[in-house]
Amino acid sequence: MIVQGTITYVVDGDRFTFSARTMLWIFPGLEHRLITTSQNARFYVVVFTPSLIEKSCHIAKYQGLKQTPRNQSRLTSTILDPKAFDLVSKVMDSLMEGSLDSDVLNREVGYGPASDFRFEHHDPDGLNAGLHHLMLLCWRYQAAGKESGEAIALHPAVRRVMKILSEDDTGQDLDELSRACGASKAYLSRIFHQQVAMPLTQYRNSLRLARFFEAYRRTDNGNLAEAVYAAGFGSYAQFYKVFTQSYGCGPRECLARKSWAKSDDSSF
Length: 268
Description:
alpha+beta; 4-stranded antiparallel beta sheet; 10 strands; globular; disordered C terminus
């Protein structure tokens, strides 16, 4: 749920920008990428696992939560009215009482280097009960609301370059990418920036960082250099610059930050 500012996703060749009070549902198997946020953006991310959904959803009104990739081809979203938004925000805030600082959670949960990050809530029973309630409450609001988020179809060249970079970033330069997309370098760079709201280079580096974290977790003893080159970076210096710009500190310092605790069947 977006609290303030705007966030932009690319889903299956379309771009969506959502503003405050929008509630999004992203189901398993739906290919999506959060590509940019406004500077003042604040939003909650809650993960409801299949086991939680199965235990909680029995009557017809909640069966939509059991959607599969076959019948879910786009983001599901609605704009909450002010009263509903305030209630959902208060429930979320109450579940966060006594948990880790939000800056730590924002850095680590789902977006940072520690994919196995866990933290121990001070009241796990209350947290899980609250998550059950939150999920059903939000789905009722979704069912009663109207779909939000106007899809903007991306230019074929933009879609093509995104597909190329997501599947195999083997160091193609802009000349090679533009030829593969059937567009000039200048046009490809310009249309990409216009439609995605970030330069092609920045988008490419964000993909490489994601690949770096995946490769780093797979390497023996966390081999940093091996992961850097596996991710598609041309040099360690290039990787270091991109990493520090994104995370505000060097990779070794950031990767040293780990927190551990028991996991459960839902995350907040």
